[in-house]
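ok, trying the design again with the full structure, not the truncated one.
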């Protein structure tokens, strides 16, 4: 199944990102799209000409990143890395929801959508992005809006990407017709968020904690503002903020620095610096609204349909640039880390909650430290809240230990090191810090975290974690309020004056990521027990290594009724071994600066890893220990069961979870007990309740072994040393029960429709699909791949996207997917859409009409050329990403393939496709009479609301 078909893939979980993450805003930022008009001609032209003649001014260089400034005010950051065959162009405007005025909430985000609608020189941006095989997006957050695209590192691609961003900086259309169609898409995005109690509760906490500051307003905006904003006001907002003197351009990846700087001057230097004045209404003021000191605990209560309970608490804390901020981040980690955080121990280990965490919003101006927990319905919310607040209050008197502080610091610093090894991510992260005052804050924050002591953490706890500074409770009159004074945000430019940073991370080799070279550099070795090693050594940035491990288990007969036990075995791998505890495993991984993810599908154990060269051997030893010697601790097992029950129960009323589960069950009908059977949500709950620790121990005893395994490594390592170590760790490890591939049997689908009512949910889910006999080696596979790309692939550019998003404006997320196995001739195609339930008829009609049109009229030569070009360029990016290569190498070995015998051959087939080939395949395999539909939403409620609104209109007409 594709990754989309995961029950939680569309669900915004209440448990937040890792505590204290240096770029929390990256993980929480809202993704979307945008547009705008050309500047007026006239007196600004001489200024533009003068700016174009002025050479960019070099400002500073820190750790391989150089800052330049153009005469028109544009800040430019260049981060060259010849070891990657891709380049990322990221333009960030220093405008976010913090800058919105009355009636303007959501305007920054709405612009982000419209800027993708076209500009003077780039009239169909989604089409261009798809043709280039780009990995693009746009995001809006409190302090900034950004647009980026990662493309293959060619001179043509870089010139195109810079021209795109330069043109839409001042020449986006921002047309009324586009606003009319797009505002409902944004509204649908709003509705998606409204389905999540966790997300809504977080918004309520923020809006209650901030009485006046715009950090209290959600970036998505108020529904009425999104629906009612005049196009003239939106244009004025665009023309004020989308200017070179309010923007930061980052180019990261493989490029020639001098040539690129000249190109940036050519593309952006001709844009005039705006004349800002009070009369023009375009002055850029610093935010002068200051949140008053909180003088008492506040309480917010949310009541909506749902199947889990949530409790949260927020404290005002200093801005990112403030010297106290790093200690506050570490304080959040001491509270929220899993499994050793104080909230986790107090709530989860005591079985008062299913999960608990803490994190910070690190922004340009004073933000928040938040703690939160999710509970199953039978757990006591009042008790959990009391214990949470008591645990936080106790940190003021119960100081953190050096071990607690060092553990959190190790995790935070590991994130920094891993991020510095990926120029694309560095390029995006730098602008998060620029939005907080200066991009160099990223490095200063790292330096400051290294120096944080237990005493620092205790000091900030006493300063800010006060009952009168939190939002969760009731107003309580008191004669002596104990208020927390939050320091002002600092001038980051003055703070960073003269800062030089450290030596830049060493870059790797210039690697030719072509099928022939990938195969040439790849080595396969078979261990004594039958396990395979696939090794691709190469010099990488930061000496990084990516790995992928698959250990296949059992056979159809031996795996019957054991899927849940297997999945829990995978979840228990990192919860302790017979040699070390769960906490010791986490500490070891942090010290090794390694990331290891383990799991189990029910019929195979999996692991992925990222590690540096010098720590590869101890990391592989730890992975072997986790796989071979799990402790299956009883307490950890019960905690895991509770957490998984909470996650599944939370989906009982969620349209996405309900629709996806039903779709999976119809897509592949299997008897209950089969290893790949899809249970109902209720069956999953019952299975989790009935599984025992003994079931997990028995599963591991029967199936643990490596004789049917594959380990692939890509990166900076010595292959001979790896082979010797792998023989020692895995070469004699065999399972008691042998592995045999699970048989597959094609079954055709029908045209039935299943409808599920989900009361009080403002967003609905639509999934439609069918199966057909086809493998990924059949002659028609290439044609179906491109046909599916045209139907619903690409970035906002496809038949389905054009219809449901661009034309009808009813869906924020819509697309199609196609998948075929390497054997068994079992394939499927699906289309999905998120939408408001009142638009269900438009969605169903749109899908049926577009499918019928695709089959009847076929695709055009232009569509074929665009889809083919986009697919081929996306394939090039897959070849360049080491983690994707590691995963592909495992698949290759399993099916006895290589890049030249499969990927290159498929690319050649796609390159030779004709319109007739694609149309013949689509007509051969796609059959509306065999397409089934599943939809879930509050359709009854939407119909009732529509009837009420119609009655009001008629009544108003009578009175009028």
């Amino acid at each position: 199944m594709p990754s989309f078909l995961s029950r939680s893939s569309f669900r915004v979980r209440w448990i937040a990102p890792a505590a204290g993450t240096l770029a929390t805003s990256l993980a929480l930022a809202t993704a979307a799209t945008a547009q705008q008009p050309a500047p007026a001609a006239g007196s600004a032209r001489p200024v533009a000409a003068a700016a174009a003649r002025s050479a960019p001014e070099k400002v500073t260089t820190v750790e391989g990143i150089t800052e330049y400034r153009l005469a028109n005010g544009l800040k430019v950051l260049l981060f060259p890395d010849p070891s990657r065959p891709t380049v990322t162009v990221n333009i960030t405007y220093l405008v976010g929801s913090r800058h919105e005025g009355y009636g303007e909430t959501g305007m920054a985000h709405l612009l982000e959508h419209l800027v993708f609608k076209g500009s003077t020189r780039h009239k169909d941006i989604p089409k261009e992005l798809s043709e280039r095989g780009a990995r693009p997006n746009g995001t809006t957050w409190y302090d900034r809006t950004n647009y980026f695209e990662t493309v293959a590192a060619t001179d043509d691609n870089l010139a195109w990407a810079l021209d795109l961003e330069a043109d839409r900086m001042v020449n986006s259309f921002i047309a009324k017709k586009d606003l009319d169609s797009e505002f409902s898409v944004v509204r649908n995005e709003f509705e998606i968020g409204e389905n999540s109690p966790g997300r809504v509760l977080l918004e309520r906490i923020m809006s209650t904690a901030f009485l006046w500051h715009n950090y209290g307003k959600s970036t998505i905006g108020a529904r009425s503002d999104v629906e009612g904003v005049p196009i003239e006001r939106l244009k004025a907002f665009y023309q004020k903020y989308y200017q070179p003197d309010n923007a930061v351009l980052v180019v990261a990846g493989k490029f020639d620095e001098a040539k690129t700087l000249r190109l940036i001057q050519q593309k952006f230097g001709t844009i005039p610096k705006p004349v800002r004045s009070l009369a023009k209404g375009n002055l850029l003021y610093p935010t002068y609204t200051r949140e008053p000191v909180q003088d008492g605990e506040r309480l917010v209560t949310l009541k909506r349909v749902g199947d889990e309970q949530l409790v949260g608490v927020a404290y005002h804390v200093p801005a990112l640039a403030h010297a106290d901020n790093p200690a506050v981040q570490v304080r959040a980690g001491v509270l929220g880390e899993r499994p050793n955080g104080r909230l986790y121990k107090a709530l989860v280990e005591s079985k008062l909650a299913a999960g608990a965490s803490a994190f910070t919003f690190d922004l340009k101006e004073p933000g928040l430290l938040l703690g939160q927990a999710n509970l199953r319905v039978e757990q006591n919310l009042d008790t959990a809240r009391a214990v949470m607040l008591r645990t936080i209050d106790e940190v003021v008197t119960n100081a953190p230990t050096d071990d607690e502080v060092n553990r959190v610091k190790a995790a935070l610093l590991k994130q920094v090191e891993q991020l510095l090894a990926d120029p694309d991510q560095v390029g995006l992260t730098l602008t998060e810090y620029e939005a907080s005052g200066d991009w160099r804050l990223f490095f200063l924050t790292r330096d400051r975290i290294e120096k944080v002591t237990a005493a620092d953490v205790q000091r900030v706890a006493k300063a800010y974690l006060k009952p009168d500074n939190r939002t969760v409770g009731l107003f309580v009159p008191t004669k002596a309020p104990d208020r927390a004074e939050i320091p002002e945000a600092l001038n980051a430019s003055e703070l960073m004056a003269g800062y030089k940073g450290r030596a830049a991370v060493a870059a790797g080799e210039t690697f030719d990521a072509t099928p022939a070279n990938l195969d040439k550099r790849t080595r396969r070795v078979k261990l004594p027990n039958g396990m395979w090693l696939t090794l691709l050594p190469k010099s990488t940035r930061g000496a990084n290594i990516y790995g992928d491990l698959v250990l296949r288990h059992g056979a159809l007969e031996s795996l019957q009724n054991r899927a849940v036990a297997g999945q829990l075995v995978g979840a228990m791998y990192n919860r302790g071994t017979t040699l070390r505890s769960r906490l010791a495993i986490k500490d070891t991984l942090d010290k090794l600066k390694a990331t290891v993810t383990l799991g189990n599908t029910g019929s195979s154990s999996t692991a992925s890893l990222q590690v540096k060269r010098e720590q590869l051997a101890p990391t592989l030893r730890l992975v072997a220990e986790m796989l071979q010697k799990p402790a299956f601790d009883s307490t950890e097992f019960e905690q895991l069961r509770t957490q998984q029950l909470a996650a599944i129960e939370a989906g009982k009323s969620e349209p996405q979870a309900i629709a996806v589960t039903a779709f999976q069950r119809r897509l592949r009908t299997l008897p209950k007990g089969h290893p790949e059977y899809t249970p109902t949500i209720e069956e999953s709950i019952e299975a989790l309740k009935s599984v025992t620790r003994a079931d997990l121990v028995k599963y591991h005893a029967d199936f643990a072994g490596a004789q049917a395994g594959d380990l692939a490594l890509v990166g900076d390592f010595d292959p001979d040393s790896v082979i010797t170590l792998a023989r020692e760790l895995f070469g004699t490890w065999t399972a008691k029960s042998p592995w045999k591939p699970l048989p597959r049997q094609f079954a055709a689908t029908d045209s039935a429709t299943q409808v599920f009512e989900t009361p009080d949910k403002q967003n609905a889910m639509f999934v439609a699909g069918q199966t057909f006999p086809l493998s990924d080696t059949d002659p028609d596979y290439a044609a179906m791949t491109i046909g599916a790309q045209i139907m619903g692939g690409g970035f906002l550019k496809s038949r389905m996207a054009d219809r449901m998003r661009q034309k009808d404006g009813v869906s924020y997320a819509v697309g199609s997917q196609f998948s075929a196995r390497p054997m068994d001739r079992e394939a499927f195609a699906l289309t999905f859409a998120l939408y408001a339930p009142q638009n269900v008829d438009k969605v169903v009609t749109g899908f049926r009409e577009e499918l019928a049109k695709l089959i009847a009229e076929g695709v055009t030569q232009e569509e074929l050329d665009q889809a083919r070009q986009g697919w081929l360029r996306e394939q090039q990016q897959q070849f360049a990403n080491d983690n994707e290569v590691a995963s592909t190498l495992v698949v290759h070995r399993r099916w006895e393939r290589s890049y030249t015998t499969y990927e290159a051959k498929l690319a050649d087939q796609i390159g030779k496709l004709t319109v007739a080939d694609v149309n013949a395949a689509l007509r051969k395999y796609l059959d509306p009479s065999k397409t089934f539909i599943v939809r879930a939403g509050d359709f009854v409620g939407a119909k009732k609301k529509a009837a009420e609104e119609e009655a009001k209109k008629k009544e108003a007409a009578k009175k009028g």
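Keeping the full-length input from now on. DSSP finds 35 helices and 23 strands in the chain.
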